[in-house]
Records
---
Amino acid sequence: MSGTESADVGACDLCGVAIGDVDWGADELRVEVSREEDGELRFWVADFCTQEHAAEWLRRPLPEADDPSPGQQPSPWRDRLETSGCFAVFAVVLVLLALGGWTAARLLLDWF
Ligand SMILES: [Zn+2]
């Protein structure tokens, strides 16, 4: 964590000062940085009290990337499980449709 715990009352990611305290947030600056690392898109959202602090922060090596959606981030394996679950249901429906169609076709063929 890099000091972005409270989204409403932002604090400068560099000096930690509450942003609203400096000229009522007149100089507040939000920076969103995205970069692809190891085939994964990572991004950072940081707030600063002044542009100078944003520039200073950007000059440094980037910290650990922010979670895409903190608090409700589904774990990758669960995501995969849900995806494969959906696919399994879809496959079963397809098989049932095929079976139903085949049975109906055979019935029709028997009748005529
Ligand atoms: Zn600052």
---
Amino acid sequence: MTESTKSDDPLRTREAVCILHDDRDAEESCERCGDFICKECIQDLFSRQVCPNCHKNYGGKLLSDFQASLWGKRDVYVWLIGGFGSLLCLTQALVCFAMTIQNLSGANTPLGVPEALALALFLSLALVITSAYFLLKKWARKALFLIPLTGFFLAVVQVSDLANAVAAACLIVPLPVVFLLSAFTNPQNRLAFRIEVSRDELESLFEVKKSNRAAHNALALSLVAFILPPLLFLSLYLALRGRKNCDPEAWPPVGGMKPAQNALILTTLGFLLWTVILLFGGMS
Ligand SMILES: [Zn+2]
Ligand SMILES: [Zn+2]
């Protein structure tokens, strides 16, 4: 009796059904622990299919804690645009208002009354938007785009001919808009404004901020190092450390091989470039 139970069905049936639902057929095995799971039990964790237990114990909580740590917290974009930007708008708006008043009372100023007033009002609008951005008001994220647009119209009104207007547009619009778009789409920035991000975005953000920070910092540094060569040594160190950190088998997996490799290539190029510059500099 016991012999037969051991030898045939139990082992086979136990393997074929879900670990959590013994009335359901297993569809997959968990990519971490190997347990059999049914279709409804499959969960996604760091781009792998795992069982609910592994999801809970190996990363699920880690990610939700990580998300909570960034929820409603000002990121670098908020400090730059909302903090620094609003201070800049405030001081410049005051200067323009002062200029308007001085001009009205007969003093000679670089700008005439209509120009100074228009600029002061434009800067006041920018001040309202950037302050709201600093206070993490959701509407301010979109309203930010009004600043380069209004600036552009202001410039077009001031210049008379088309060629100058086109030049003004090319000068005023692209860079700020690209910068604002990079802030708008940034997952950490969205978390700062309490906007949900996708699971994939959260996982890659986790890699950038937590699991392999060295690799991503190395990449950023290797770019700056083209202008500031002493940083080449630091970016080389971080790139090597970032490469060593990589462990796709770990739980949660540590990625970042690509940025670490790219940082290494850029750092090597930086060393070559500066060697050439120093050599030629020494000869002349
Ligand atoms: Zn599992
Ligand atoms: Zn199940």
